[in-house]
Amino acid sequence: MKWSETYIPTLREFPAEAELISHKLLTKAGYIRKLTSGIYNYLPLMQLVLLKITNIVREEMNRSGAQEILMPVLHPAELWQKSGRWEVYGKELMRMKDRHQRDLVLGGTHEEVITDLIKGELRSYRQLPINLYQIQTKFRDEIRPRFGLMRGREFMMKDAYTFDADEESFKVSYQKMVDAYFEIFKRCGLETKMVESDTGAMGGKDAHEFMVIVDTEGGENVIFYCDQCDYAANIDKATSLDLKNQKKDTPKKMEKVHTPNKKTIEEVTQFLGEPPEKLVKTLIYKADGNLVAALIRGDKEINEIKLKNALGCVELEMADFESIKKLTGAEVGFSGPVGLSGVKIIADEQVTELTNAVTGANQDDYHLVNVNPGKDFKMDQVVDIKSAEEGGVCPRCKKGKLVAARGIEVGNTFMLGTKYSKALGATFIDKDRKEKPFIMGSYGVGITRTAQAAVEKFHDEKGIIWPVSISPLHVSIIPVNVQNQTQREVAFEIYEGMRKNKMEVIIDDRDERAGVKFNDSDLIGLPLRITVGERTFKEKKVELSIRGKKERIFCSKEEAVKMSKNILDKLQDDISL
Ligand code: 9G3
Fold it and tell me: Residue 94 CA: which ligand 1 atom is closest?
């Protein structure tokens, strides 16, 4: 490729609206251009990256025995109504009507469609197991699209679906996908951590997420992993052993205490001289429209996904002030479980271990002390609804400590059980001649998200540093001064030599200042650069530099192609290690 003929609209400045460094860089380096909120054009270099990633995905999926298909983007609403997800995903589901006013869905995922397809096709256990996958554009009407391709409204996903006759066979299918995922992301130059995750609206038994660990705000997901065993879970799933067992005091008599305008945990506990773990934080929620009081120890954070799962509700939001005032008779900050009626009380399991605790008195400017759960207030449900914390004891090995990290979810796997096959009546005839619903799994890789995750992980102040395996091209050749005959000739000689060797090379043949060329070359982030400048003329040398590394390598123009191939092969080997 010649730069002068290629559409790479690099910018001098970062786009103001982009927040994430990877979003800024992909825009500034001329990889993407926004069409509208959450929807992007992929320009030539981006398209090359996406092809690299999809080729790796395709190779590993096919190697695992999966078969590629392509399903429709437009789905009849009925399928989503049958599975119940028409309501569940609500506004996030892109909907439209056709010319006959029939409801259609723009597919955000394809569990319904694939199950409907299989239902008519696979009738016998002999045809199982089977893994079908596609690489396709997905649509999700995110309420707040942001971070470029990380959370878009139109994005590329590889989604796979497995069908098995029984649990045992399913475990093999699931493991094959897990193995394929580790291989896919490793080949993309991305180390990932597989963490337990919540199945959420998907239903089914268990699920896992594949996280690229980053220490920037791009890591939207908080995960916890054990520093001794291989336990790892995202914040919506992670638990920890709580060794800070409260010493069992003798229960005292409950008393009301005047706590003028003391509302926050800090204010109340300081005023009363009690530690936060003695306080019962009472949070009033609206779950599917009904008020719920959630109790958690003052030193812990509630996890709303765990709360939602415990309540089995679809909609969960903090109650508004008026509802709280009406229910408790007091301002926010004075809520407590004692004497609270007409509302479900769900408590985190640690609340039951408290003695002589502090709670709101459901009266402005008053709190209760020496409150004892079970004696002074009832709990309708006791369940883990808190977020794990760094330093917590590992729930698996009970020795290690939990380490917190931030991750970008680039893949996810779901054990769906028979949720969709039952909902859509998809069954097969088993060996025992009985009709049974398929055991299913679904597995996603965010293709566009993986590309951006690589930029979030690998960049410096000058621009992108692509892993060689997913870089749009391998080499950029810079004739420092195209007006200089020798430099231009030598540069093009190497360029032609590389093309003959099927190397992916771009030559910056623009009549631009050297600085512009060097900056653009660093910005787009190809692994290898060849500079043909003054030194070439005097010392008959060209300079090779590896993106992200200091070293400079000099060689003759005759050696340049061979030397470059060796360097690129070495970079590729480093990835495959
Ligand atoms: C939707 C919308 C949003 C969604 C989904 C569907 C998340 C949805 C979970 C998954 C499950 C699996 C197949 C590949 C592997 C993951 N948000 N999920 O299904 F319609 Cl609007 O994506 N899908």
Answer: 21
221 ligand 1 Cβ < 6 A? no
Architecture in CATH of 3-239+403-456: 2-Layer Sandwich (3.30)
241-255, 349-363, 385-399, 405-419: lowest mean pLDDT where?
A: 241-255
Is the pLDDT score of 88 beyond 90?
no
Question: What interhelical angle do 557-576 and 485-500 show, nearest 10?
Answer: 50
Q: Which CATH code, of 3.40.50.300, 1.10.10.10, 3.50.50.60, 3.90.960.10, is assigned to 255-382?
A: 3.90.960.10
- In angstroms, the CA 290 to CA 309 distance is 15
- For the ranges 203-207, 432-436, 448-452, the lowest mean pLDDT is seen at 203-207
Ligand 1 neighbour 89 (Cβ under 6 A): yes
CA 385-387-391 angle, 5° bins? 135
Q: Using most ligand atoms within 8 A of CB, pick from 88, 109, 154, 158 the residue to mutate for ligand 1.
A: 109
pLDDT in tens, 186-196: 999 999 999 99
Q: What is the mean pLDDT of residues 268-280?
A: 94
| Domain residue ranges of the chain, discontinuous segments joined by + | 3-239+403-456, 255-382, 473-576
* DSSP β-ladder status, 427-429 and 435-437: antiparallel
Residue with CA closest to ligand 1 atom 14: 444
pLDDT of res. 245:
61
86 in ligand 1 pocket by Cβ < 6 Å? no
The 10s digit of each residue's pLDDT in 508-522 is 999 999 999 999 999
Which ligand 1 atom lies nearest to the CA of residue 442?
A: 15
CB distance 443 to ligand 1 below 6 Å: yes
Indicate which atom in ligand 1 lies nearest the CA of residue 160.
14
* Superfamily classification of domain 473-576: Anticodon-binding domain (3.40.50.800)
Å from CA of 109 to ligand 1 middle: 5
Residue 492 makes CB contacts below 8 A (sequence gap 6+) with 479, 507, 509
Strand partners, 442: 161, 414
Residue 434's contacts (CB-CB under 8 Å, 6 or more residues apart) are none
Give the residue, by CA position, lying nearest to ligand 1 atom 9. Answer: 202
Digit-coded pLDDT (tens) for 114-168: 999 999 889 999 999 999 999 999 999 999 999 999 999 999 999 999 999 999 9
How many Å is the Cα radius of gyration of the chain? 29
Identify the residue whose C-alpha is closest to ligand 1 atom 2. Answer: 108
Q: CB neighbours (10 Å) of residue 362?
A: 21
Q: Is the CB of 412 under 6 A from ligand 1?
A: yes
pLDDT in tens, 20-73: 999 999 999 999 999 999 999 999 999 999 999 999 999 999 999 999 999 999
* Closest residue CA from atom 19 of ligand 1: 109
420 lines ligand 1 (CB under 6 A): no
Ligand 1 contact, 115 CB (< 6 A): no
Identity at 556, one-letter amino acid code: S
202 lines ligand 1 (CB under 6 A): yes
**Token pair 């309540």: residue:** 311
